[in-house]
Amino acid sequence: MVATLAGLSLAALWLYLYTGRLDRQREDDSPQPDLTIIQPRLTTFNLQGQVRSQLYAERLEQWPHEDGARLTEPRLTLHDRMQRRWLATAHRGRTRSGDRSLLLEDRVVLKREPDHHGLVIKTGKLHIAQNGDTIETDDAVVLTSGSWHFTAMGLRTRLDRQRLELLNKVRGKHE
């Protein structure tokens, strides 16, 4: 009798744990984000109280088991040390919670504003470090500035040093 009760108790415990695990798996596999924010805006400031960056997106989603968040149609405005404004846009992006960096993907454009004939960088992927000064990619890059047109594989720039490096397979043309 004791063995039968112990067996039934173990069976009940197993059934309870198994069905609870199934419910959790169904919740984890749901195609729903944990958090959705429509048109989020984030503004950061430097130590002098000046605007450092502004991030806007059509949508922000935090999905289960993902570090950071997904962004739809992100627009990032950066201000360098000389308070010149840079605008980075993309079709989608990702933030990483650990280092607060931003990865822009799909039709990425980086340009200095409001100069309509100045530097414009187009690429498929762009990583922007937490402070916004270091911007880099290993993807193909098209850079135009006035009558200059460059293509390259990879780019690294430090906005705080006003330095831009085209890394590999650089080709240039002046029209």
Structural summary, described in words:
By secondary structure, the protein is an alpha+beta fold. It is built from one helix and 13 strands. Strands 1, 2, 3, 4, 5, 6, 7, 8, 9, 10, 11, 12 and 13 form a 13-stranded antiparallel β-sheet that branches. A hairpin with a 2-residue loop joins strand 11 (134-145) and strand 12. The longest helix is centred in the first third of the chain and has 27 residues, at 2-28. It is globular, with a radius of gyration of 24 Å. The N and C termini lie far apart (95 Å).
Concise overview:
By secondary structure, this protein is of the alpha+beta class. It is 15% helix and 53% strand. Strands 1, 2, 3, 4, 5, 6, 7, 8, 9, 10, 11, 12 and 13 form a 13-stranded antiparallel sheet that branches.
Write the layout of secondary structure elements.
Elements: H1 2-28, E1 35-38, E2 41-45, E3 51-56, E4 59-62, E5 69-72, E6 75-79, E7 85-89, E8 92-95, E9 102-113, E10 120-128, E11 134-145, E12 148-158, E13 163-174
Antiparallel strand pairs: 1-4, 2-3, 3-6, 4-5, 5-8, 6-7, 7-9, 8-9, 9-10, 10-11, 11-12, 12-13
Strand content: over 45%
Radius of gyration: 24 Å
What can be said about the biggest beta sheet? 13 strands, antiparallel
Q: Name the structural class.
A: alpha+beta
| SSE order, one letter for each helix or strand | HEEEEEEEEEEEEE
